[in-house]
Design goal:
single chain, alpha/beta, 5-stranded parallel sheet
Length: about 130
Amino acid sequence: MSKKFFVKIVTDPEVDLRKCVVGLACASQAIKDGHDVSIFFAANGVKMLNSRYLKSINQMEVFPSNMIFDILNSVTQGAINVYCSTGSQAANGVTSENAGEKLLQGYEKWMTWSGPPGVIELSAASEIQLIY
């Protein structure tokens, strides 16, 4: 039976990268299992959408090659909703004007810029919430 999941990534990956990856892996698995998944990137968790940052993680070889990109592709292509905090991105130097240079390619097709209203909307609509 399909469930409605809400996954929120808020941990700074520079503090606990594994926690962020586990959250994304859980979201990816829920999608593969046929659940409806909504995900919200907020606080410094928004770094997980920054292409340069992700390339540096991939080059560190702490995970199998390209695993981080494979998981994010699964999530961004398979989630019902992918939201990102506008304020948190701005605090990390990303705005709607420069996002094309900084975020994962194709973000404009799957990402919704939002703030607290999006968090409330997605969490209220969910049956299961996972916070990483």
